[in-house]
Design brief:
- The protein is α/β, with parallel strands linked by helices and 242 residues long.
- It has a single domain, classed as Rossmann fold, CATH 3.40.50.
- Helix content is 37%, strand content 24%.
- The longest helix has 28 residues.
- It binds guanosine-5'-triphosphate.
Length: 242
């Protein structure tokens, strides 16, 4: 039997584990040119970059979040969409990933169809179904409401997301789309999209935070006593301070 002092120490460790800042590796994948680099700039720095070049290999950007008083660091891995720039590094991308953003361009149906091969690449690299997945239709500012051809509809994307267990967002890394409204000064265009980019980052953070609590609670339940956690520490790179 554990003494009450040991028990209280154990509970103290649980609480410090739960409040510790954790870094989450989030992969951003999709065809070349869909806007992964611009999106990760917006997600991390809040700005659309002036100039971008095709990603070679991988780029990292980080975003520190405070979710309900808890600090979480998202480390976004902006991977190259072009096969020739990613070949030799693919396995490294997928190692220890905590979440994946699948990005397509809403004005490029080929990039939407291409998602199947990105899902397959995840499977080949042993990314389990328990890893949270998010579907992001980018470049919504270029959507032409008068056209149905040559664009990916939100209905199509919603169905796809449901089938593949993903949370779906449509957004623009560049600009919110404009809408014609009848204001006091007559007809004018105003932006009507809330900052969906911010919604994405908060949704990813919240989902990962919930998962973290869940896995810590599971570890506690399965060990019987929390002492076991200190013996079997999670992998070093997964637990870093902000
Ligand atoms: N209009 C519009 N253009 C965008 C948006 N996001 C990205 N772009 C443009 O799309 C082009 C490609 O953007 P990138 O961010 O380099 O695309 P990527 O997916 O990272 O491409 P790779 O590095 O080759 O994989 C650039 O010219 C961007 O300016 C958007 O939301 N709206």
């Amino acid at each position: 039997m554990e003494s009450s002092l040991e028990l209280s120490n154990s509970l103290g460790s649980v609480s410090s584990l739960l409040t510790r800042c954790r870094t989450f590796k989030v992969l951003v994948i999709g065809d070349s040119g869909v806007g992964k680099t611009c999106l990760t700039h917006r997600l991390c720095a809040g700005q659309f970059p002036d100039r971008v070049e095709a990603t070679i290999g991988v780029d990292f950007r980080e975003r520190l979040l405070d979710i309900d008083g808890e600090k979480i660091k998202l480390q976004l891995w902006d991977t190259a969409g072009q096969e020739r720039f990613r070949k030799s590094m693919v396995q490294h991308y997928y190692r220890n990933a905590h979440a994946v953003l699948f990005v397509y361009d809403v004005t490029c149906p080929a990039s939407f169809r291409g998602l199947i091969s990105w899902i397959e690449e995840c499977r080949q690299n042993s990314l389990g179904q328990e890893i949270p997945r998010f579907l992001v239709g980018n470049k919504s500012d270029l959507r032409d409401p008068s056209r149905t051809e040559g664009q990916v509809s939100q209905e199509q994307a919603t169905r796809f997301a449901k089938v593949h267990g993903m949370m779906f967002f449509e957004t623009s890394a560049k600009n919110p789309p404009l809408k014609r409204v009848n204001g006091q000064r007559g007809d004018m265009e105003v932006s009507y999209q809330r900052d969906k980019v911010e919604d994405i980052v908060m949704a990813v953070g919240a989902k990962l935070k919930r998962q973290k609590k869940h896995s810590a609670a599971n570890a506690l339940m399965h060990s019987g006593s929390f002492k076991v956690l200190s013996k079997k520490r999670p992998e070093k790179e997964l637990w870093t301070c902000c």
